[in-house]
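agent: user wants the structure for Galactose oxidase/kelch, beta-propeller from Artemisia annua. delegating to structure tool.
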Amino acid sequence: MYHHILLVLMVILHHAQPYRADGPGSWSLLLPSIGISAMHMQLLPNDRVVIYDRTDFGTSNISLPNGKCRPNSDDCSAHSVEYDVGRNSIRPLMVLTDVWCSSGTLMPDGSLVQTGGWQEGDHVVRIYKSCDTCDWREMISGLSQPRWYATNHMLPDGRQIIIGGRQAMNYEFYPKKSANEDAIDLPFLVETNTPDVENNLYPFVFLNTDGNLFIYANDHAILFDYAKNQVVKTYPIIPGGDPRNYPSTGSAVLLPLRLVQGKVADVEILVCGGAPKDAYANANTEKFDKALDTCGRIKISDPDPQWVMETMPLARVMGDMLLLPNGNVLIINGVSAGVAGWELGRDPVLSPVIYRPEKLTTCRFEVQNPSTIPRVYHSTAILLRDGRVLVGGSNPHDKYEFSDVLFPTELSLEAFSPLYLDPSLSGLRPKIISPKSKTLRHGDKLTISFKISCPIDPNLVWVTLVSPSFNTHSFSMNQRLLILEGGNTTVSLGKSLYQVGVKVPPSGNIAPPGNYLLFVVHLEIPSEGIWVRIP
Ligand SMILES: *[C@@H]1O[C@H](CO)[C@@H](O)[C@H](O)[C@H]1NC(C)=O
Ligand SMILES: *[C@@H]1O[C@H](CO)[C@@H](O)[C@H](O)[C@H]1NC(C)=O
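agent: tool returned. relaying tokens verbatim.
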């Protein structure tokens, strides 16, 4: 049995040599055109993905259904589509007001609540609940402040918080407790705003396990009690002091939260990439500075948290960071020079990189096989239930431009398959037999049975919960991965069948209400996920 496991480990280690051109992972083109450029994406609990760009990009390459046109307009094209993962097909949707550079979060009932945008869309709250004939519903004055480039996150009480945005140094909630519930000032957004450049848009926001919010903007971060409007803690400036938020767009993740005895001992944030301080001004004079090649990692659960810096094998601005079901971090998309914004990025980075948080510092990064399609400004990436990563978008132009430009508007959808999906490893992949899906309550015990054709080591079994995040502008809002307690209690029932009992996290601070993907992982190889819901 251990001989078997050793062999697998050797396969994985063999692939773990960094800097290899023929690295692991593979790409496939799913659809050459979905008709729009995927600027925003959200996976929904029926395995469809709602995608939209902006309503003022000009005519898209997909028509609205049934000969419809936009109100008071000769534009009869769609600016939002629904992608059906199983059928690999799309359906056009009608979004009425401008959703450009907006934000959102999936609600516990499975609908996407999306907020803000540009011009007539900047106060709008839009709801998309998927079905075969469903479409967007819009509430014109759903927000109390205009929000453009804001960040949303799910809260333990089932509401979402909406933070910041251009010239919106405050936050508010959806749904509101009363119609006149107003926005609340957040001076941190004033402090982190660089005059004429900003560098603090789409702040990186995560719910800490103590119920406070970790908010990172520009070059530093706070722990924030949103209920009392109080800064609980101020973190040190990231070494180097270079900006990491739009337009110097880096990305960030909350590293996997491991539950032991109902608690999470270590809460860590990883911020990667971005652009040097003067990069935005320089890019506007046609000088494209090399992107940052550093990541900062900070244990926010420490009494005296300090940044620890690491160097990526590839410099990157506008990279997306995604948590894979096995707890590794995928860094994908973006460019290696310039900044975000119209025409300001250069030198696409075609190779993703995987970061293994649990490995020794010297062998955490692993370069993956490259795509052939540049994914520059306004590109996106999200995790799918089967473990693939859906990649789309890229349009650094004010309108759709398909010729005579450095980076033509990209309408295609691709999938990146990490090494764990390699057919040679299929015999080692767990398959969840039951449940098929489930509604869970905090503190519940959940029994899962799964099949795997090779013998397993219970100490190497993880059961993970991943929240499907809202992705735009290189940040995945509401992204979270929990390693449940009890993976090591896996027992064999014979005939390749196994059973494991795990505990649902005890509180909404650790696992806010919502839909999650649940995976059984063995030796870094995840099963297909199942949908579970914490109402
Ligand atoms: C999109 O439509 C434009 C204008 O009709 C056309 O030039 C272009 O080739 C189309 N692009 C794709 C990728 O379909
Ligand atoms: C599983 O791991 C936990 C936490 O490390 C430990 O307390 C427990 O005894 C282990 N259980 C088994 C069956 O190994």
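agent: one observation worth passing along. The helical segments are 2-15, 187-191, 279-283.
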